[in-house]
Design goal:
alpha/beta, Urease, subunit C, domain 1, TIM Barrel, eight-stranded mixed beta sheet, five-stranded parallel beta sheet, 14 helices, 18 strands, 30% helix, 22% strand, globular, binds (4S)-2,6-dioxohexahydropyrimidine-4-carboxylic acid, binds zinc ion
């Protein structure tokens, strides 16, 4: 059956479209954008007053399956994804067991297909068991379906191993995604090192734990000519390094997470472990730098780092709590704040959530051009709501945004021409 989205404002930065138009989806593809006869058998969604966007793409989620299904699984995680407007998500390999073999990649691909909500693209591990010692077999992982490699949750500290990872991954055209954290310098610090950590007395990690690794890795990217992507950057220094590297013509990229532009380390002042995340929430000057980097094009993508945890992992003292924020269901309205605050124009904001991330990993997503996959998010930009973690679709209710007023939400999420989420 075909699906007609009628009268919405279509915003598709990849094709330069921003206009009120009908969108016709047929046989899982975009069949028409613009006026035309209404097919007899079409289901119609009235989209007046809404935006019709390419389905949102998230480069960085933790779905926890296999092994930690009490925190999240592929079904609950992709349900949360589509509720947040995401039609494609890339899941990190720090599962149990780690996604460092064909068997684990295949399991994720198969489960995601069975569930049939968002499209799931697995990211394989850089090193076996995320141990930072020996490289995985990228050829067999790629054959099984990975779109990139990362040791996310841990940083590849060994410079020689990182060089070989970049070279080896490049031969399979796989980007290397780095979790940038010097483990010795960060020393397990529970929050950002600064005025607030002095006040709270919590253990802390300096901004340089991130920026030092970015500086090193950019040198290695230059040495190898490989595709390097820095994950969840949060510091002025790291973003300055990326900006300079891009100006020199290096093919490098980076992402930022909503909590790093929407919150500062003041959120840790009350010892709320829901504000504990790695990299940590930073001081106001770093938050400003993240917003500047979004504004000037240094940042290539907004990614949630959706990290769901169980109550037992979070309802403990700040120092002992797990790092992470359940982010899929709050990303879109937080990103819209950037537009409302005039940090980025709307078309750029949509690009940061759609075709820019898709292009980085070569995903067949992120645009509404003719013949593209019929993945669409219908957004009501004026829908006002208040964050209530108890109502999250995700199994992870860990959010520092509880009680925060939000404006904007997905009304319908469509994958392959099928409505997989409808609000209310
Ligand atoms: O906050 C985080 N949570 N940062 C990471 O790097 C890992 C993630 C997780 O897996 O929970
Ligand atoms: Zn990470």
């Amino acid at each position: 059956m075909s699906l007609l989205l009628r009268g919405g404002r279509v915003i598709d930065p990849a094709s330069g479209v921003d206009a009120v138009a009908d969108v016709l989806l047929e046989q899982g593809r975009v069949a028409r954008v613009g006026p035309g006869p209404e097919p007899a058998a079409a289901r119609v969604i009235e989209a007046q007053g809404c935006w019709v966007l390419p389905g949102l793409v998230d480069l960085h989620v933790h779905l926890r399956e296999p092994g930690q299904e009490h925190k999240e699984d592929i079904a609950s995680g992709t349900r949360a994804a589509v509720a947040g407007g995401f039609t494609s998500v890339c899941c990190m390999p720090n599962t149990k067991p780690v996604n460092d073999t064909r068997a684990v990649t295949e399991l994720i691909v198969r489960r995601a297909r069975e569930v049939g909500l968002a499209r799931v693209y697995p990211v394989g591990a850089i090193s076996r068991g995320l141990q930072g010692e020996a490289l995985c077999e990228y050829a067999e992982l790629k054959e099984a379906g990975i779109v990139a490699v990362s040791d996310d949750g841990r940083c590849v500290m060994d410079c020689g191993l990182m060089r070989r990872a970049l070279e080896y991954a490049a031969t399979f055209d796989l980007p290397v995604l780095q979790h940038c954290e010097d483990h010795q310098l960060a020393c397990g610090g529970a929050m950002h090192e600064g005025r607030v950590s002095t006040r709270t007395g919590l253990t802390a990690q300096p901004a340089q734990a991130e920026s030092i690794i970015v500086a090193r890795d950019l040198e290695l990217a230059e040495l190898t000519g490989a595709r390097y992507h820095a994950q969840h950057l949060s510091t002025a220094g790291a973003l300055r390094h990326v900006r300079e590297a891009k100006a020199r013509g290096l093919a490098v990229s980076c992402e930022v997470a909503p909590h790093h532009f929407a919150l500062s380390d003041e959120a840790c002042a009350g010892y709320d472990s829901n504000a504990k995340v790695n990299p940590p929430l930073r001081s106001a000057e770093h938050v400003r730098a993240v917003r500047e980097a979004l504004a000037d094009g240094t940042v290539d993508a907004i990614a949630t780092d959706h990290a769901p945890h169980a109550v037992v992992d979070k309802e403990v003292e700040f120092g002992r709590a797990a790092y992470g924020i359940s982010g899929l269901e709050t990303c879109l309205p937080l990103a819209l704040e950037l537009w409302r605050d005039r940090v980025v124009p709307l078309s750029r904001l949509v690009a940061l959530l759609t075709y820019l991330p898709a292009r980085l990993l070569g995903l067949p997503a992120g645009t509404l051009t003719l013949g593209a996959a019929a993945d669409v998010t219908v957004v009501d930009p004026e829908l006002c709501w208040t964050v209530d973690p108890a109502r999250f679709v995700s199994r992870g209710h860990n959010t520092p945004f509880a009680g925060r007023a939000m404006r904007g939400a997905a009304r319908y999420t469509i994958v392959g021409g099928e409505v997989v989420f409808a609000r209310g």
